[in-house]
Amino acid sequence: MSTFYFDNNATTRVLPTVLEAMLPWFSEQYGNASSSHHLGQHAKAALVAARAAVAAFVGASPAEIVFTSGATEANHMAILGALAADPTRQRIVTSVVEHSSTLCLLAHLAAQGVEVVQVPVQPGGELDMAALADAVTDDTALVTLMHANNETGVLFPVAAAAAIAHARGAAFHTDAAQTAGKIRIDVRQIGCDLLSFSGHKLHAPKGVGVLYVRKGFALEPLIYGHQERNRRGGTENQAGIVGLGVACRLAQEYLVHHAGRVDALRDRLQSGILARMPFARFNGSAARVPNTCSLSFPGLHGEELLHRLDQAGVIASQGSACTANGTEPSHVLLAMGLSRDEALSSVRFSLSRETTEAEVDIVVKTMAAVVEAMTAPTSVAA
Length: 382
Ligand code: PMP
Description:
Number of helices: 14
CATH topology of the largest domain: Aspartate Aminotransferase, domain 2
Shape: globular
Largest sheet: 7 strands, mixed
Bound molecules: 4'-deoxy-4'-aminopyridoxal-5'-phosphate
């Protein structure tokens, strides 16, 4: 049975070119980049090249890139580092729809006395900018907001949010795990102090990520040690970082030459589903990243729908892979005003640049067949 993978917001396939570039660093090129012998120096040179590629990908300079184990660690480093910077600023402003890697840490900090303010969103998923402006005070350490939502793809106006934060002397961090590789990112245009992303969302492997730290922005480390200019200790994930460098270069080329392609496929998927299942509703009417489509199917159970799709070879998800267990409704959809049942009836399709039109058409057909089977009146035995 063929597999049609529409869960790219959870993770993406490592591209063959990325894997090929990584392989030598597991075997013949096994030096530690901190060693002075030639194997070490060779490894160090590869890290320098990867750092330059990652920096170019987000419009930063190489010295502003800190390699981490992923976006979760980068988010922790940003939030804890910003809090440690000034004991008179112990307030953090965020949104109600952030990823669990942010919300779980903030819940822990709130229990320890840090003031955490969560700004609401509107029914289309838009951030309430007036509420944001009210929430940021002179004792705010950090405003942390996702660049795009992992469940709906809705984009937050991070440049405007950064300006609001800075006007009160607060730092600004954005979690760009769901925009990296999907839209062009420019840290100077956003005006952020800190920006996180994870390799495995853009066809690099799991276990490698980035925190961009603006030059001159003093940030306390989360893990102490001499690597990464004393900002993140621990022997570098050499192969992962090399893979991330290649993935960033490929993503940058793709975004320059193929803008609009994934949007068109996503729109074809969405309109195809809505045409054949007019009772479905799509979630997130605000501007979105090109690849994401979240739909509710009122009256149906999303988890069962996904299970039947999976059996037919179509892989999608109910929302965040980090919280999805099918029993609790998505906090994102609830915050947008959906009822518990509506949220539990939702399915998220997330495409990649490898997705084809033929695959989209198969998914629409499969969805129609699965939904028809789930809504058909059950025959009653005579
Ligand atoms: N933030 C967002 C918005 C995400 O979607 C994810 C991954 N689901 C993360 C952070 C965490 O990334 P990782 O698990 O790779 O650390």
